[in-house]
Amino acid sequence: MKKQNTILYLLSFLGITLCITTSASAAGRGAFAGDSVGARASILGEAFVAVADDANALRWNPAGLSQLLQPEMTSSHINFFNMGGYFNYTENSSAINEDFIGIAWPNHLATVGLSFLNLGTPAMLHADERGAVMNAKISYAERSLTFSVGKQFNIKGITLAAGGNLNRFSISGNSDNSGFGMDGGLLLETPGIWPEVGLMLRGLLLETTLGKNGPTIPAKTDIAMAFSPLRFLKLVGGLSKTSGASNLQYSTGLQLDFHWLAPLSLSFLAGYKVLGKLENGTFESQAESKSVGGSIRISRYKVDYAYEQHPIIEDTHRVTFGFFQLSPVRFHLNKGRAAFEQLDDTGAINELEEVVYLSPRKAEAYHLMALTYERMRQKDEALRLLRKIQSLNRDYFQKHQLGRLMADIQEQD
Hints:
alpha+beta, 2 domains, 9 helices, 16 strands
């Protein structure tokens, strides 16, 4: 386990270092860099602030990092406008590329993370105030290097998570500027049917100035809710407001999860975003966009895809790759086995139920659950699970002589 952790951390820091050292100038984020990293998160838009359950929470809401159970790395690429071809960084390209890489890892104190975002083009026009072109080939880039932390607190059955980002921003182009900024996030989860609520304060309500006379990054506030009426269905909604602007943006979306093809897990996502203005109590829509996509996860690897419709520019495709230390199934199975060996029957059942939700045909999990229920003297439930193994995986049933176990349980008083 420790060896896998070390390898994952080294690969992640190497990737971030390569992103920085191969860039033309210092790291940072400027005036037009986007926050919508991650294909899945981008589909749900601002509403993802209330979900924030993967490594893309590094940018969306660092409070959500506290939900991560194991180390996770994510990376993504998108080519806006598709004018220069994918991954085209040549001098003659007019493409605008966005690249992101991040890693988050939990520990006993909190979950911490490090991420790098680069948005730029190798060829941008430089014009004066009258529109006269002064330079036709300026390399322009906005970058940010961000350290994140998230911590969860349990207060009388209510789970409250808080997180923060420390950002190092810069712009390189006709002139270079850099600066620092901070973000803060909250995530509230109450028991029962109440939705999760997320809040993200980018800039902590204060604009960030890059350099003495450089451009500013306006503060931005996102608030969102996520509701799961069924375990495999998530409904979300969010609202965003940028300081100094009269526009509001809201987003809605849904996520459907399918696990019966385990070890392959699939998710379908759809999102709808509206940018508009609130005047005299009436909301007037100015631009709308729709996006669809999905996630495929097998073992420790995950690929997210998003097709994004834009009201003005060309539609784009976004792909995100994720990497876990262990597959989620193996992670929960290991925790369930450890809880069983420590005589923590409730903890074992909770972990093993998560396993069979993610992988409904996992005979090993049903077997361990049956042994746990036997120890809890719930004979009927133990026998039901053993019969389920017999119908799902007869080879496993015979190999582990579960027929004899069933007979022994039936003979118990």
